[in-house]
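PROTEIN FOLDING TASK:
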Amino acid sequence: MGTLTQQPFPELKRVVLSSGSQTSPILPDNFLGGFTPRLRVLILDKITFPGLPKLLLSANGLVKLVLKEISTGGYFSSDAMANCLSGMSKLKYLVIEFQSRTSHPASKNRRSSSLTRTILPAFTVFQFQGTSEYLEDLVARIHAPLLNRLSVRFFDEPPFDIPQLSQFIYLTEKIKIRDYLSLDISLPNCECSLDVSSPDEDVNGWFSLTVPSLPMDRHLSCITQICDQLSLDSHLQALRIYGNWRPFWQDIPEWLDFFRLFPTVCSLTVWTEMWPLSLLFKKS
């Protein structure tokens, strides 16, 4: 079987490999002969494949690429991934999810905003889980004008700098930040997440950013920083807050300062157990 999977399969169009074991199975570097010109779908879930960049360079016809539970042994740099993506003009769906922060090293070089971006004309859905540094380096190299679904989950906690991500979103046609009309903020017990979407059916854009669990007293500062970096303050018309969180009474001034960041908001909705927050809306 091992010898068979190392032979070229020039007509192969779909490969799906998944593992439920605690350790990731390792594919040989020359898996499928490193040559799959007709491959359209590649899904690797908890599979270590050091030779992946080589295989992807031959798979220019890929439409869907899903890489989940990427371990340290299966790490590929943002440069290597960007080089592979540069030849995938038909790619529509991309998932890159590392197992943990330790499964890929920190980037040493940050990208310049003037770096030439490779255009991915068919790219519409992108899901990423990893560090902000890795994503910053990757999106600095690509341009996806038709992207309409972007989900980001960072391992690292704020503060972090995401100017390249902001620019990447701004250059899209459907989820560009300047067209955002509503913002959903979720404050559950285990994570701090921020979703931005537009009610305009013609726009049909959606963006989600999630960071790890934070102490209660850091939720507001985290969201404030993210909104500031993504330039959301002057574009929002609707703000919705939901989740299970009971802030202390002394947090009310911070909430007031937070709401003042969005002078254009004309609709505010709160679904939560944040009972002290109701005092903000009581008439004196």
User: Anything to note?
Assistant: The radius of gyration is 21 Å. Residues 179-201+214-284 form one domain. The chain is about 20% helix and 25% strand. Residues 219-229 form the longest helix (11 residues).
